Amino acid sequence: MRRRRFKNNCCLLATLLLQLPTLASGAELAAPARRKVILLAIEGAGAEELARLQAAGELPHGGFARLAAIGRQASSVSCTGAQTPETALLSLATGVDPAEHGILSGRYHLPTQLLSEWTEADRAPIAGETLWQAARAGSRQVGVVRWPGADNSAIARRGNWGLLIDGAPQFPQRALNLGRDNWRDEFYGVGPGPGLRWSLPTGIRSFSPALTTSLEYSGGGTLYQMIFDIIAVDRTDDGAVNYDALLVSSNVNPSKGYLGTVEPGAWFRLDLPQEAANAISGIRPSAWLHLIDLVPDLSSVRLYVGGAFASRAYPGSLLRQLEKANLVSPGPPDVTALVRQSRALPRATVDTLAGQLLRSAEFVAGTVLAGTKLPWDLVLARLQPFEEAARIQTADRNVARELRRAAWIAADGALARILETLDLSRHALLVVSSQGFQEVQREVDLSEILRRSPEVARVLAKHQQYGILPVFRILANDGSALVYLNEKGRSRDGYLSRKEAAEVEKVVARAFSDYRSPSGAGIERVVRGAGLKKLGLSGAGAPAIAVLASPGVRLLDYGRGAIVDYDPPSHWYAGGFTAKSARQGIYFEAGAGVDRNAGLGKVRVERISARVAELLGIPAPRPVAPTK
User: Fold this and answer.
1) CA Rg value for the chain
2) d(Cα 186, Cα 212) in Å, to the nearest integer?
3) Strand pairing partners for 76?
4) Which residue, 138, 140, 198, 203, is the most exposed by fewest CB within 10 angstroms?
5) Cβ pair 268, 291 in contact under 8 A
6) How many whole angstroms separate alpha carbon 412 and alpha carbon 429?
7) What is the pTM of this model?
8) What is the per-residue DSSP string for 320-336?
């Protein structure tokens, strides 16, 4: 009996084995495609502001609206302490707070440094494993776009492909303010002879004499120089002098070197010659021109010429994808060149800055999508319109708010573009901001508070060695500030004993705590001792004191004899605040692996890396980095 059963089982097994090739060829046994994840960080995007703009219909691209419709949103987002964008993104990437990953703020001091020195978060060593390391250890392909800590300086600090933050422009930005005297008639000034006329390109006619000027474009990082001709034309046959457009030419004769036409208010992409690419080493660069305004009689023509940046993408395969997609970095908005001739920001200048925010966001979104043409499983990308808008200096509060709105539109457009392309039936998209930037109503100079304190002056006279070596150092990071003492073992030039440092710490902390702003908004909290650990401010770079700003206040460390508390003359948006309701960031999930009917509730930034790892099917980043 046993033999017969064994024989029957063998026959059944043989039959199944014969059927396996047929079954394996069927769709029901096809290996499921591996889920891929894009994590998009948009630091500075606040939940309350997003809800208000959506309700008012002020986000025309519909990126955030679609994300909310197809995904799920957290009720609140928080992180440990008062983190700057850089530290928050590193907390997100490592799954631990600043005390564990070691990057305490945008700027912080380490015991191996002189007290006058500091460490920038972008280039600091990271303690712990990052998402890109964990993904690569799990045999996943990773793209990292402008993420702090991924600067391509070592294997642990890079993805399989990536894009770094732009460096200095190889060909700097500039603004031209031309008057009527800057234009000449259409005769050659040099060459075969002044009587030889050039001609306009086919199909273009000017009903007033076409006038020309030269645009010299040279770089600080290279000796290479280019000269373009700009030709003013009047295209309206109305019997009046009415110049209404500019032609751009790479040749003194526009019929031979015509590159394009730009009208008032419009942007024009100027592709530089291949020789320029050879001069700065990289893909062929481009610069964006914006014709800010054009008075019909040419009494005033304002033209912004954007910078040309060397591509900081790696490896060569991503460079080729960027070139194939015709993508070049426009660089961050640059207000310096635009306001060199005027301290105010006129209407047209605001439009120029808003256009730069839009093009910068478009480039990052385009780079993410170009990277997905390469092998990928995870992309970490940082979109920076709010950070870029925060650096634009303006004394007009309404202008600052308008630029803030332009940053939202830029982020909304970039998100819409990614959503249009990404297959959410197979992949997941996570969008996060650790905090919403706040409008800054007041600025408080911490150094000036201490300079005016008689008690601090007494302590300085008692402990300052040789009248030269400093006793303390303040590193302000917008909504928060770290105070370091020149204590032995806490600084390379430290000389204060522990007892002396404790006396200085007590006096300095009291000076800040006792400060009362005339406006009623100033310092929210002064933290030292055990309280620092709760803020994630412990470890090697821990300060003696942390100062947290009140809502609407930005902290400074100038110490140049300025007034302590004043209306900010130039800066309106900042990060580095504690996460209160009005500063809440955003967190969305959509796509494969996301149950949109399940609520997210409250989300901590430090927990998002584990969620990304779960969607990828890999272990979460470990607190301690691998030894290899």
Assistant:
1) 29
2) 6
3) 602
4) 203
5) yes
6) 14
7) 0.86
8) HHHHHTT-----S--HH
User: Which residue reads 């702090």 in tokens?
Assistant: 148
Tokens of 82: 């008062």
What does the pLDDT read at residue 277? Answer: 59
Letter for the amino acid at 47?
A
- CA–chain centroid gap for 429, Å, is 19
- Report DSSP state, residue 449: H
Q: How many helices (H) and strands (E) does the chain have?
A: 18, 29
Alpha carbons within 13 A on the beta-carbon side of 239:
0
pLDDT of the residue at 21: 40
Read off the amino acid at residue 24. A
The CA distance from 117 to 112, in Å, is 10
Instruction: Please report, to the nearest 10 degrees, the dihedral formed by the alpha carbons of residues 389, 390, 394, 395 taken in order.
Output: 140
Residues 6+ apart with CB under 8 A from 309: 166, 167, 169, 170, 285, 328, 329, 330, 331
pLDDT in tens, 185-216: 865 444 444 445 678 899 999 999 999 998 88
Q: What share of the chain is helix, strand, coil (3-state, %, to 5)?
A: 35, 25, 45
Q: pLDDT value at position 462?
A: 85
> pLDDT below 70 — which residues of the chain?
1-33, 186-197, 218-225, 274-284, 335-348, 393, 395, 465-468, 519-521, 559-582, 624-628
- DSSP letter assigned to residue 519: T
- The amino acid at 18: L
Single-letter residue type at 253: N
Which residues have C-beta within 8 Å of that of residue 575, sequence separation ≥ 6?
A: 43, 44, 84, 85, 387, 390, 435, 437, 477, 478, 479
The three-state secondary structure class of 178 is strand
Burial class (CB in 10 A: 0-12, 13-18, 19+), 416: buried
